[in-house]
Every structure is written in structure tokens, then in C-alpha cells.
């Protein structure tokens, strides 16, 4: 585990892999060290942002690698099941790009089990790893100016659900009626780093 | 209550933002020049966290339906209350029906208005800040908007007549700490970062200050996996032209961060105008 400085208020801890990043993220949150403001997991990193007036960065840098990590990062976190109506605008295109039928695309998308690697791009937007390699397709050449909230999409090795309406270049497979982002809820995001996710075909909404 | 007569090019409600939600993809947001913003609040006896207005290149006008103490800080510009000139960085009294008008700054970009009692629009995730990247918080101010003002009972007394403020240098020198991804760049790139002059691009906003200048060449191929970013990070996209990320920056990014501004110099970065030249010092 290597600790790098990110200016005078933050440390970037490099981890061996995503699972270790999630375990470290969970351990720091559980320890809640004084002066730490934000703990942000990435794919192989955890960024720790601190108030330098309340917390000595050098001591924090020495302490972080000594922190015992939980066995599993997802203790107490319920798996999230996301119902999807598979009628996305890009479903045919994805079938064409992958040489699969529409049905096979949907089957592979629902068969996989996903992990929320990290959030970013917009509030509540989780980058989900675990996508079937047969479904790894590039982003659209020209992004859409507005993707509706609830759009279920893939790009590269990731799957995601757009939590709110935004521009976007991912390929749309379908839509979910599950609210992923709600500022009146605590936490506002349905997806948390390290959570497990499955997609299920939503027959009722059809 | 305050009525927006005209917002100027861009005016937003700001406070100290939404720290603590970055792992959910929520930018911190809040006043881009936090130092000037906090000063404005202190001048009118508010807690530093009270919400005020951030004006971009001035130009705003506000009508006060109740008397209020106000202070304007940040990018220096002419301030008039009912046509009478008032000082910056000083508490000023506005009477019932008073009109506060801001001119345009000659230097700097963002000016702040604090009102004793604070602007009390609804909070979203514990903050009233407008986040232009995520769309959280109130929309940018528009003509006819009405801004509620909070109670003044129990606030600190107004103790200072004017605060001395150091002017922004013509070619600011921003201090940086190299890393966390300086090893992604050639030695030449790191040398030119601290020796060359960069120019602020017109494409800059509250998300980031885009720079033009020497291209910072990478020492390695491939892509960095996405990682968390702090305000003041110098992110370098494949173009090689660095971007200083400001208050509304996305919480994670996949471009290597070559260096991070000293946190004390982030307010200066928030005052940079398109066309202005800057330098970095390690």
C-alpha cells in the first residue's frame, strides 16, 4: 500500500486492487479519524481529504497502512436488485457490435453479478464492474445531450444507471423505475461503493 | 427579502458547499474563492457558513425589501447603494427599498455579497450552494427571483469598518505540490510546469480553469484508472494542457493529476480571468 500526497489537504492511497480499496474505504469510515472530511474510493485507490488544521497529514499517512482491514468490505450492505425494462435505444446496436441477439444481450446483462466500483460523473452515478466481457463495447462516437434518468447503460468494462437526466455517451440497454438518487433520502444514493448489484428483467412494467 | 433586478452574467447562491458526500459523486461546490466569501460573512457578523451570492464579472443589481447590512468582497468593482458609492470589504447599510448595484471588476473574476442574516433558500444535502456541474441547489439567479434573508437576532456584532485585502498580482504565481501522479510525466514536462507561463482559456468556469501553454508530455502510455480528486488539482487530459479544478469539479477523474495547488492559493485560482497569465512554483 503506497501513500501519495495530493496537495496539502489530501492523501491518495494506492491499493493492490478494487476489493482492497473497498476494504480500506470501509475501515477508514469505521475509524472516523478526526479531521477527515471525505473518503473517496477509486478503482485501485482511496483518496482521503482532511482539514489540515485538525489533522496532521504526515501522521495520517503513517497511520493509514497500519489500519486493520475488514475481511469483506460489504458487511451489512444489502445487495441491490435493479429491475430493468430492456427497450433501450442502443440495444440493437449493441447486439450488432457484439454479434449477439437482443435476447442474448439481455441474458448476459442480467446473468452477471456487479460491484459498485466507485461513484463519479454525477451524484449517485455508480461505475459497476462485473460486466460480461462479451458486452464490452465502446462509448457512442457522439454523446447524447440528454439521457433520461433511470437509463441503464454500458460502456467499456462498466455498467451503470443514470441517476438523473444528463448528457451521456454510454450505450442504452433499457430503463429502470427504481430511483437511484433522492436528496431527501439518507443516504441520497441507492448505490454505495462496494455494494453488490444485480439487474433483473422487469416484466411488470412492460 | 431581496429581489433580483438583474443578475449580471452569472450570479449563484453559495456557501461552504457539501463536503462529506464525495464518495457518492457529489462535488463539494460552494464559493469558488472561499477566502473572500468567508470575509464577506465575517464583515456583517454572520457565521462563515451563511449563504451569500457569488457574482461572476459583477454586473448585478438587487432591491432590498427590508433594511440590511451587506458587504461585498472578492474581485474589486464599483459598488453603489441608491446611486451612492460604497467601499468594498466593508459593512454597508442598505435601507428599505434600497438598490444595490455592482459594476464590473477590472481585475479578478468573482465578487461576493454577504447579507447579515444570510440568504435562506432551501438546503440540499446540508448546503444552499448552486452546483453547476450536478445541478444541485438553486438555479443561477434570474431577474425577478426573490431571495429570503434569515433572522439577525443572536448574530455577532459588526465590529470592523473595513478589512485590508491584498490585491491580486498581475501575473499570479501559484504554489504547487507535485503529485500524486507526477511520475506519469516527463522530466521536461515537470520543468516546464514550474518555468513556463500559462494563459487562462475562455473555456474556464466553476468546474475548472483551463490553461494554454506548453503541452505536458506523458512519460508512459495507457490510461489511469479513475481516482478521487481534490479541489486545486492540476489534471492533465491527453491534450497535455492542464486544468485547475475548482469547487464544482467531478469527484473522480481518469486523467493524471500532475500537481495540486497549495490550498491557500485556490482562492487566487478562482479569481483568474480568461487571457490572464500565471506561473507555478513548487
Describe the overall structure.
The complex is a heterodimer of chains A (206) and B (282). Chain A is of the alpha+beta class. Chain A is built from four helices and 13 strands. A four-stranded antiparallel sheet of chain A has the order 1-2-4-3, with helices on one face. In chain A, strands 5-13-6-7 form a four-stranded mixed sheet. Chain A is elongated. The mean pLDDT of chain A is 94. Chain B has 282 residues and is mainly β. Chain B has two domains: 2-147, Jelly Rolls (Sandwich); 173-281, Cyclophilin-like (Cyclophilin), CATH 2.40.100. Helix content of chain B is 9%, strand content 29%. Chain B contains three helices and 20 strands. The mean pLDDT of chain B is 97. The interface between A and B is large, with 39 and 35 residues.
What can be said about this structure in brief?
Chain A is of the alpha+beta class and about 210 residues long. Chain A has two domains: about 60 residues, Gyrase A, domain 2; about 120 residues, Beta Barrel (Cyclophilin).
Q: How much helix is in the residues of chain A? A: 10-25%
Number of strands of chain B: 20
The CATH top-level class label of the largest domain in chain B: Mainly Beta
Taking the alpha carbons of the first and last residues of chain A, their distance comes to 48 Å
Class of the largest domain in chain A in CATH? Mainly Beta
Strand order of the largest sheet of chain A: 1-2-4-3
Tally the structural domains of chain B: 2
Low-confidence stretches of chain B: none
Biggest sheet layout of chain A: 4 strands, antiparallel
Q: Low-confidence runs of chain A (pLDDT<50, min 5 residues)?
A: none
Give the largest interface pair and sizes: A-B, 39 and 35 residues
Structural class of chain A: alpha+beta
CATH architecture of the largest domain in chain B: Sandwich
How many domains make up the 3D coordinates of chain A?
2
Oligomeric description of these chains = heterodimer
Find the structural class of chain B using helix and strand composition. mainly beta
Secondary-structure element string of chain B: EEHEEEEEEEEEEHEEEEEEEHE
Provide a count of the helices of chain A.
4
Largest sheet of chain B: 7 strands, mixed, barrel
Shape of chain A: elongated
Q: Order of strands side by side in the largest beta sheet of chain B? A: 12-19-16-17-14-13-20
Amino acid at each position: 500500500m503506497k501513500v501519495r500526497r495530493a496537495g496539502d489537504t489530501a492523501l491518495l492511497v494506492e491499493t493492490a486492487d478494487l476489493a482492497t480499496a473497498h476494504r480500506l474505504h470501509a475501515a477508514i469510515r469505521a475509524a472516523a479519524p478526526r479531521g477527515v472530511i471525505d473518503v473517496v474510493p477509486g478503482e485501485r485507490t482511496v483518496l482521503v481529504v482532511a482539514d489540515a488544521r485538525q489533522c496532521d497529514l504526515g501522521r495520517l499517512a503513517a497511520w493509514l497502512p497500519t489500519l486493520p482491514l475488514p475481511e469483506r468490505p460489504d458487511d451489512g450492505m444489502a445487495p441491490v436488485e435493479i429491475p430493468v425494462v430492456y427497450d433501450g435505444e442502443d440495444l440493437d446496436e449493441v447486439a450488432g457490435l457484439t454479434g449477439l441477439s437482443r435476447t442474448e444481450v439481455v441474458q448476459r446483462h442480467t446473468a452477471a453479478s456487479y460491484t459498485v466500483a466507485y461513484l463519479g460523473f454525477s451524484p449517485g452515478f455508480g461505475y459497476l464492474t462485473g460486466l460480461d466481457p462479451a458486452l464490452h463495447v465502446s462509448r457512442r462516437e457522439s454523446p447524447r445531450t440528454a439521457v433520461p434518468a433511470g437509463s441503464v447503460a454500458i460502456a467499456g468494462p462498466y455498467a451503470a444507471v443514470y441517476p438523473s437526466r444528463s448528457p451521456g455517451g454510454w450505450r442504452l440497454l433499457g430503463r429502470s423505475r427504481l430511483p437511484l438518487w433522492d436528496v431527501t433520502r439518507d443516504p441520497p444514493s441507492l448505490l454505495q461503493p462496494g455494494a453488490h448489484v444485480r439487474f433483473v428483467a422487469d416484466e411488470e412494467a412492460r | 427579502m431581496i429581489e433580483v433586478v438583474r443578475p449580471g452574467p452569472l450570479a449563484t447562491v453559495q456557501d461552504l458547499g457539501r463536503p462529506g458526500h464525495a464518495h457518492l459523486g457529489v462535488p463539494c461546490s460552494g464559493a469558488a474563492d472561499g477566502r473572500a466569501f468567508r470575509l464577506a460573512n465575517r464583515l456583517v457578523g454572520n457565521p462563515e457558513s451563511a449563504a451569500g451570492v457569488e457574482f461572476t464579472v459583477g454586473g448585478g443589481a438587487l432591491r432590498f425589501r427590508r433594511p440590511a447590512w451587506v458587504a461585498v468582497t472578492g474581485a474589486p468593482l464599483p459598488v453603489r447603494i441608491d446611486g451612492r458609492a460604497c467601499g468594498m470589504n466593508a459593512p454597508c447599510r442598505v435601507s428599505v427599498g434600497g438598490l444595490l448595484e455592482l459594476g464590473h471588476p477590472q481585475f479578478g473574476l468573482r465578487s461576493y455579497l454577504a447579507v447579515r442574516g444570510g440568504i435562506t433558500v432551501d438546503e440540499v444535502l446540508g448546503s444552499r450552494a448552486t452546483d453547476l456541474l450536478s445541478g444541485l441547489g438553486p438555479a443561477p439567479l434570474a431577474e425577478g427571483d426573490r431571495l429570503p434573508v434569515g433572522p439577525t437576532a443572536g448574530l455577532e456584532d459588526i465590529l470592523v469598518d473595513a478589512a485590508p485585502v491584498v490585491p491580486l498580482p498581475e501575473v499570479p504565481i501559484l504554489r504547487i505540490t507535485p503529485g500524486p501522479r507526477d511520475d506519469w510525466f516527463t522530466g521536461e514536462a515537470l520543468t516546464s510546469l514550474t518555468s513556463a507561463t500559462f494563459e487562462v482559456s475562455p473555456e474556464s468556469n466553476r468546474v475548472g480553469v483551463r490553461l494554454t501553454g506548453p503541452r505536458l508530455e506523458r512519460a508512459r502510455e495507457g490510461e489511469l484508472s479513475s481516482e478521487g480528486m481534490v479541489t486545486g488539482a492540476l489534471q492533465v487530459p491527453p491534450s497535455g494542457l492542464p486544468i485547475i479544478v475548482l469547487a464544482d469539479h467531478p469527484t473522480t477523474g481518469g486523467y493524471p493529476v500532475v500537481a495540486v495547488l497549495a490550498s491557500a492559493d485556490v482562492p487566487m485560482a478562482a479569481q483568474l480571468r480568461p487571457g490572464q497569465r500565471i506561473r507555478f512554483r513548487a
